[in-house]
Amino acid sequence: MRNRHPYCACLFCTTAAVVMAMLIFRISSPVNAADKPISFIEDVAPIIKEHCLACHEPKKKSGKYDMATFEKLMEGGANGEMIIPGKPEESEFYTLIVTDEPRRMPPRDKGEAVSTDKAEIIRRWILQGAKLDSGIDPKADLVKELRKRWKPPVPPQTYKFPVIINALAFTPDSKQLVVGGHHELTIWSATDGKLLKRLRTRAERAYAVAFLRDGKLAVAGGRPGQEGDVRIYDLTAKPMAVDNGVEILDGVGNPQVMVAQLLDADDSVLCLAISADGKKLAAGGCDRAVRIWNLSDGPAKAALEQTIENHADWVLGVQFSQDGKYLISAARDKTAKVWDLTAKESVMTFPDHQNIVYSVTVSQDGSTGISVGADKQLRTWKIGGDGKQLKAAGGHGDEVFKVVHSPTAPILATSSADKTVRLWDLQKLSVTKTLAGMSDFVYAVTFSPDGSMVAAGAYNGEVRIWNVNDGSERLAFNASPGYRVSSVTTNSKP
Predict the structure, then answer these.
(1) Mean pLDDT for all residues in the chain
(2) In the predicted model, what is the mean pLDDT of residues 468-472?
(3) What are the angstrom distances between the C-alpha of 81 and each of 32, 73, 267?
(4) Could you give the angle at the alpha carbon of 197 between the alpha carbons of 196 and 202, nearest 5°?
(5) If DSSP codes are grouped into helix, strand and coil, which group holds residue 337?
(6) Is 68 helix (H, G, I), strand (E, B) or coil?
(7) Do 185 and 199 contact (CB within 8 A), yes or no?
(8) The domain 168-478: what is its CATH number?
(9) What secondary structure does DSSP assign to 441-492, as a single string?
(10) For residue 470, how many other CB atoms are within 10 A of its CB?
């Protein structure tokens, strides 16, 4: 009979227990943990990027310390050698992270202290010799090296939460609507709101979308604070799968779908525009620069023509004049600006918003700039001359995020945080229709290529399409695949 006394054990059990205890002690001992190899690029570089590079990148170099590459990191800053391989307690790079003194890095007014577990990773890496992984160039930009190793997640099959819609566009035939999702673009029928395609993207968010002359789609987006890009997609490419009638396209690894990448930036790209003749593409974003590519030989052979650094803060909107002579831009620096593409110089600044300027467009004759912003105003101004304001009009009850021009008539559409879209007579600068029904901030608005419809997207995933001629609603749906919401109703019209 088995002995059930709680304090009695056989010799075998006692021996096994002792061996197990020794193994547990060995596995959990600090000495063994310190022996585990620490990868610089996988373990240390992400900590440097998160906590250090804001002050120690090439343009700032606080304390004359540049940490953008492994080589520069090991050179140290103004105080000399900051990392002494094998001696973390003598390496200021480590001791300044864990100190309680005012000299702590990062400084208390710049960010939170490095956590204990992250500091221990750095300590162990230095203790192990502060080595760089084999196969990596010491001169390589660490941010780009980390970006190359990052793998985008697969979009959720069913959204648990609504997707924020920052961008949408009708297809050239006006029959479908492309909407930005979470690491994907979704394509919907503009007639009945049926989901037709899902195109996986590396970018977490799409901030601007526009069709090229050849039918391919240009998309500006990125991961906020991590990376940004401009990519060209072919929506007609063969899908990798079909799920319940929905085509699934791989825009990350399939070159037949993602046909060109024009830009790889360190932060999100927020806006783009195609010239009237389809030969140029402009994009701007968080790095304050506007880049212009020549598309004459197709997107695969796109050539960067100009990089314009004309703003002091994020570039939020860009638009070409109809004749292609000027580029108009809007920015968080509270200005709209005009750039002469031939002379390659700034010719005008429009400052009258006195607040963030979110979006710009241009009149059909190319003479008038049109802008909207956080001041809740729609303003028009002469592109040439001294840039004096022509007219200003209110109407929206909150910030105005977007203004777009109809492709067929002197009509504007604006979208706002007041949860409405408004149609305007450009000549009178007066509201002709207020399109209601949205229940959250309306970030995106676009006309169909034939000018008959206007569509908008909101923070809570809502999409609505209206007829331009009478303002009647054609369709409403939530562009978050699988997400169930009862608040979006529709009076759908064929």
Answers:
(1) 90
(2) 97
(3) 29, 9, 31
(4) 160
(5) strand
(6) coil
(7) yes
(8) 2.130.10.10
(9) -EEEEEE-TTSSEEEEEETTSEEEEEETTT--EEEEEE-STT---SS-----
(10) 7
